[in-house]
Amino acid sequence: MARSHTRFYCKNCGHEELRWAGQCPGCREWNTFAEVKVADTKGKKGAQGFSSKQGSVGFGLPGPGAGAPAGLAAAVGPDGRFQPTPLREISSADTRRLPVEPAEIARVLGGGLVEGSVVLLGGEPGVGKSTLLTGLALWWMRQGTRVIYVAGEESPSQIRMRAERLGFDPHSEPGFDILPEVHLESLVDALDRAIAEDDGPVVLIADSVQTLHSEQVDSYPGSPTQIRYCGGVLADFARRSGCPVFLVGHVTKSGDLAGPKLLEHMVDTVLYFEGSGGEAIRMVRAVKNRFGTTGELAVLEMRADGLFPVDQAGVLFLSGRRGAEPGSAVCAVKNGSRTFLVEVQALVSVSRYGTPQRVVQGVDAKRVALLAAILEKRANLDMGGCDLFVKVAGGGRIDDPGADLAIMTALASSLRERPVPIETLVLGEVGLTGEVRQVADLEARLREAARHGFSRAVLAAGAARSKHKGMKMIPVTRVEEAVTRALEPVAHRAREEA
Fold first, then answer.
1. For a designed S-S bond to 147, which of 91, 137, 265, 430 qualifies (C-beta 3.0 to 4.6 A apart)?
2. What does the DSSP assignment read for 34-49?
3. How far apart are CA 252 and CA 32, in angstroms?
4. Buried b (16+ CB within 10 A) or exposed e, 143-173
């Protein structure tokens, strides 16, 4: 009989401790530790179908005759033992990408779905994760690719109802199979038989990984130990069989993926599915991608019949903009290969309480406090006794340092009650000494702004050599100069240049 020992796992982030603690050292949350008895499986025989010698799923390389994808089969010598394989004899996985539609999702994945890759998709409840994957499954089915949908959270009839809403034809060709199984050993056995029966490509969707459980782990479904083990087995299955795998993951109240952080290291791609302020806009962001660019962003619109790409996504966050208003500035930010024009709004008012408020949405609050301090020190703007409210219009989020100058300009505009001209773009990173620095990929930012009618750009002096037809470059070196030039009326500038 296997011995067991006790561990304490944080239900919020998956941090493990030997003893109970009131506060988790990992996520700093209180009263989140749960006691779990973990069986000592040292020397324990694996479950049926998990022995690498049998060529089935296991935490290692596939055995002889396992049907491994191209490039791995050569690792087994004539005597049945593993041996190193020269890199030149291994074919590239990039040549075996499975097409993906819509093109927005394909771009986030790096151009398509790589054979044997594992994609972890996380998001808030109800944001549309299952809708997105069902839509992808229907498209693959119509292209002749078989999809196996592991129903862990929904019944098959519920999935059928959603598929019909997305346009599923019950008289269409087969290729969309539902597998209502959450027991890992039975699931892998069924998948092995399904792969053996099908000669074409197969995609596996596990919705969700928190519902799976294995008899090899003495813990409840959804615990960090179960998630780590089940995720590892499915990742090993994907690399052995060449079958791409989608894992749907839950998120915690802080917005991070639930379960151990090891799960994110184990997969090839991590996608976050985000909403946009309760509206129909959805964004899929790649925070990790071994086969593409990290930081890519897909912008989709949720409709009754599925998710569709948004036209003119570059100016999505400018919709509803009224014009030149105090406390507003527009910048061009980069997300992967995409450029978005974003409106930063600020409200500065005299505090009615002893401690001024700092309320921020869409930008890191510490970053706003830092930029406000630079404005006070370098531009002599007194905001110490004022409440500061900063948000990104349209529900966007800014991590690009090139938006520093736009945030500071919006704050100065609200404090002085002077609007930034509507056709003015503000770009630049700001240092602690008040200097304005150049931003990366400036040409793409200016090109996107000029395409949507912006004719003036306030930017670092070193970058002002860039020329775009119909756009006036305003070079600045210091933050105080940048704020003054950005708030100048266009008519005044025209008379000065004349």
1. 137
2. EEEEEE--TTPPPPTT
3. 12
4. eebbbbbbbbebeeeebeeebeebebeeeee
Q: How far apart are CA 141 and CA 134, in angstroms?
A: 10
* Beta carbons of 282 and 273 less than 8 angstroms apart: yes
Which has the closest alpha carbon to 331: 464, 215, 420? 420
Question: pLDDT at position 56, please?
Answer: 36
Residue whose entry in the numeric block shows the structure tokens 């008519």: 491
Looking up tokens 């004539």 gives 78
Six-digit token string for 294: 């990290």
Which helix (H) or strand (E) is 206 found in, with range?
A: strand 202-207
Please choose, from the candidates 129, 130, 144, the residue with its C-alpha nearest in 3D space to the C-alpha of residue 98.
Answer: 144
pLDDT in tens, 82-126: 788 888 888 776 667 899 998 999 999 999 999 999 999 999 888
Report how far Cα 75 is from the mean position of its chain's Cα atoms.
Answer: 35
76 neighbors 87 (Cβ within 8 angstroms): no
DSSP string over 305-358: TEEEEPTTGGGGGGTT--SS-TTEEEEEEEETTEEEEEEEEEEEEE-SSSS--E
By DSSP bridging, strand 297-303 and strand 306-309 are: antiparallel
Q: What residue type is assigned to position 304 of the chain? A: A
Q: What is the largest CA-CA distance in the chain?
A: 92
CB-CB contact of 231 with 223 (8 Å): no
Q: What span, in angstroms and rounded, lies between the C-alpha atoms of 188 and 191?
A: 5
pLDDT tens across 178-189, in order? 999 999 999 999
Residue 14 CA: distances (Å) to CA of 21, 32, 288, 326 = 13, 10, 20, 45
Give the Cα separation of 137 and 205 in Å (integer): 9
Q: What φ, ψ does residue 175 adopt, rounded to 5°?
A: 150, -5
**3-state secondary structure (DSSP) of residue 136:** helix
CB-based contact 470:455 (threshold 8 Å): yes
* Close Cβ partners of 334 (under 8 Å, ≥ 6 residues apart): 295, 340, 400, 402, 440, 441, 444, 445
Q: What is the pTM of this model?
A: 0.78
For the beta carbon of residue 125, count every other beta carbon within 10 angstroms: 7
